[in-house]
Specification:
Elements: H1 2-27, E1 58-64, H2 73-83, E2 88-94, H3 106-117, H4 136-142, H5 144-147, E3 160-163, E4 169-173, H6 182-185
Parallel strand pairs: 1-2
Antiparallel strand pairs: 1-3, 3-4
């Protein structure tokens, strides 16, 4: 009788532990409340840049600046865009929040990128990537509650966010990671 009570107590403890573990594991799973493809952003010329057109391809979002020590990464971004055009879209998002390194107007930014680096990948309007005015795209990219993957913060210009073919965040790469780094290309 005593053995039966002990066995029953152990069995109930295991069931309780498994139920609690299952509940805790499931409670940490976050489902995004907005699809990446529903976020509206304007292109550098002021037209809506419909992210839906990129479904089925990976997207590399990069906050860019014309007067930054990392500005030469435009060459690598263009190379990445050209080499993997069939499976990747690079999108440059001008931002002036880090050292005032993107002071230009849209036409100046576009001209600078095309003339100096031959950029032909999409560029967007100038946006905020942090703070109270953070663009909804960067809210999605940096908040686990929205992207269901991770929280992050944008540390400097040329930070990169890679999204998969179905619009799920894969990873973030800081400015020091060059566009053609195997850290990025191995995921393509």
């Amino acid at each position: 009788m005593k053995t039966l009570k002990i066995t029953l107590l152990i069995t109930l403890s295991i069931i309780l532990f498994m139920t609690l573990f299952s509940f805790l594991s499931n409670s940490e799973t976050v489902t995004p409340n907005q699809s990446l493809y529903d976020i509206e952003i304007k292109g550098i010329d002021g037209e809506i840049l419909d992210l839906n057109q990129y479904k089925g391809k990976k997207i590399l979002f990069v906050n860019v600046a014309s007067k930054c020590g990392f500005t030469k990464q435009y060459d690598g971004l263009q190379e990445l865009s050209s080499k993997y055009f069939d499976k990747l879209v690079v999108i440059g998002l001008p931002c002036n929040q880090f050292g005032g390194q993107e002071p230009g107007e849209a036409s100046e930014i576009k001209s600078f990128c095309r003339l100096n680096f031959g950029v032909d990948f999409p560029l967007t309007e100038k946006i905020a990537v942090k703070g109270a005015d953070k663009h909804p795209l960067y809210q999605w990219l940096t908040e686990k509650e929205k992207n269901a993957k991770m929280d992050s913060s944008v540390k400097w210009n040329f930070q990169k966010y890679l999204v998969d073919e179905e619009g799920r965040l894969i990873d973030v790469f800081y400015s020091i990671t060059k566009p053609m780094s195997s850290k990025i290309t191995s995921l393509l």
